[in-house]
Amino acid sequence: MEDFSSGFWGIYIAAIVVISLAGLLYLLRSQSVVKLPKGQKADVTGHKWDDDLEEYNNPLPRWWMWLFYLTIFFAIGYLVLYPGLVVWKGSNNWTAAGQFKQERDKKDAEIKPLYDKFMQQDVVAVSKSTEAREIGQRLFMTYCIQCHGSDAHGAKGFPNLTDDDWLYGGSPEKIVETISNGRGGQMPAFGAQFGEEGVKDVANHVLKIAGKKFDAERATRGEANFKTVCAACHGPDGKGNQAIGAPNLTDKTWLYGGSETTIIETITNGRKNYMPAWKEFLGDAKVHLLAGYVYGLSHQEGEAAKAK
Amino acid sequence: MSKNEFKGIPIKVVPPASEPAEVEMEQVALYETHKKIYPRWVTGRFNNWRIFFVIATQLFFYGVAWLQWNDRQMLLFDLVNRKFFVFGFVFLPQDFIYLTSLLLISALGLFVWTSVGGRLWCGYACPQTVYTEIFLWMEKWIEGDRPARIKLDKAPMSAHKFRLKATKHLLWILFSIWTGFTFVGYFTPIRDLLAAVPTLSFGPWETFWVLFYGFATYGNAGWMREQVCKYMCPYARFQSAMFDADTLIISYDAERGDPRGSRRSGTDHKAEGLGDCIDCTICVQVCPVGIDIRDGLQYECIGCAACIDACDGVMDKVGYPRGLIRYTTEKALSHGYPEKDFVKHIARPRVIGYGLILLTVTSIMAASLYMRVPLKVNVMRDRNALVRETDEGLLENSYRLNIQNADEKQHRYVIRVGGLPDVKIEGDTRREIVVGPAEAEVASVRVQVEPQHATRGSKKIWFEVQAVDAPSISVKEKAAFIGR
User: Fold this and answer.
1) pLDDT digits over A59-88, tens only?
2) Range of the domain at A198
3) Which domains does chain B have, with CATH numbers?
4) Looking at beta carbons, which residues of chain A come within 8 Å of B385?
5) Pick from A168, A170, B237, B348: CA 20 to 30 A from residue B286's CA?
6) Residue in chain B nearest A59 by alpha carbon
7) Is ipTM strictly over 0.85?
8) Model confidence over B348-407: pLDDT tens digits?
9) Gyration radius (Cα) of chain B, Å
10) Pairing between strand B458-467 and B411-418?
11) Cβ distance A156 to A236 under 8 Å?
């Protein structure tokens, strides 16, 4: 009820409800009988048009009237039990949030033994259990596909999780850490520092170490800047640094794209990326199962590989 | 100026001759008190028709639930797994249109024969009539016919009365529970349900519905009866919109019957100025809705023809020709045409119109069922995902294909893609998806295109899913490929 700035509205609603109920009760009582001269029947309603067109009174059965009373008594019972009047919280203290919590707690208790079983196994073992992988997949389909895609192949700016190429490391512990605490990756913009030509030169050096087609003259010129500036994160040979999430530039995997245009765009404007932390929201068990599923995506063997 | 002068005109005050007598007022209830109806037992040809329909519909209802087809229940609406088995078909929620057409066909069918034959449905085949009839049979068996029942109800409670009433209600309740059980048996396999009876291990919803449907049967057929037709049924009321002067109605022939009156046998009643109606009121006593058909066509009349059978019996006894109360039409009754010409008046615009619509809907549904492919494919593109670029520089979108096998055999399916030049499915395109009988599988598919073929915006592509072992089972679904 925090949305209501004043207590007046509770009284307002309660008054409308109570007056309406009383009004309905009065209406029902007053319309159940009519006073007529003795011997006269209530076979017409008294409404008359065009001199002789009369409305017949086709009475409802008496049991139908009791149904009307029943609805009123139901309303009163409901208002006593439930918080319909705002000013009265209801004698059984029901709230939507309370019911949700109750249902969730019940479900949690039901699932707990299953989760406990998997919590006792390590991530690698979880990744090999069909049951755990099915649970993990459903969790992935709910919480992860918005960025990483239903097939976990990622998208521009969102890593592919199936290729065993990792920004922050692909060991089970690292995957759990990433899902639990999230990650924030940032590359500064070098457009101003290198200048337009300078950026192109560095880009060509990156193409060279990545094993792509490059302009030899520019690559040589760009090498100096790379060795002094870029190497701080990506390393002198461009192999990256998983401790800070700096990508390996010598492989075929690109987070934003490996064309010359895209690399120039990346160096000029920098990149900023963010993965939210899930530990609070999902809890350890779900994170554990998700880690197993993600680990399994790039470590498929035996049954899992065949199923794929 | 005196009070009795007004602008100089003298006014003479005349006292009223006498005060109007005090009118005695009384309270009149505006709701109708329910009067119990005791329909008298009736025999005759129309009643035989009703017996036939009661037995036919109930044999179907109580019997079909037990029949098997392809090792499963022939008619089963599996709500939990969202599969609906109807004879040889497996319907999925996507087939809801067939339920709509079935309801349309039923409604239009009712329109057609109501405009031709009046309330035939109400009088012979409606569940309300059918169950009331069955309950009346039980009632008559235990308590006796109308006079005995009236007498029993008037009598003070006694051991005898209590025994009869208890037996009747027990019988009704047992029958109702069986009805509720059968009803639930169309949603939960009835054999499983039967197996759960000894231990009473029904699920909460099954228990609820057995009791609820049973209660509805008991209440409606045992207690509410004609009240359902009079106050609750919408169809009863809007049928009058389908009636016209050529529609079959049950009517008393006032011209022949009036003036009514009792007579001694052997006298010439015509000479005494009497009509053929001996005013025995049997037609009123047999009426399940408690009306007097001799007052003319009334909205309460469900067209059960009990009064025809009753009157024909009486006419036979007194030696008059049958048909004082009979099926006729408003026009025939007013000598518009001879009654046997009723058939010639069936083909009228209203009936032809209803009939044509009915024929159209029925043919479309039949054709659609005949051509139905037992396979459903839903293409789900990853929500809010844009294009991705592969290491080879191809543009890629990912999709999930929900393949639902609506056949009762296992099938192997291949997925093809088309709609853009050189568009292909990543990996092994001949990969087969195996889907079990009436099961569903989700296939994750990545579609790749050369960048020049998927420029700015969304491109139309299609997926084709085909059963390898039955090539005629094939479905093509449209999808969108988001380019760069």
Assistant:
1) 888 899 999 999 999 999 999 999 988 888
2) 188-272
3) 244-336 (no CATH), 375-482 (2.60.40.10)
4) 149, 155
5) B237
6) B31
7) no
8) 999 999 999 999 999 999 999 999 999 999 999 887 788 888 877 888 898 999 999 999
9) 35
10) antiparallel
11) no
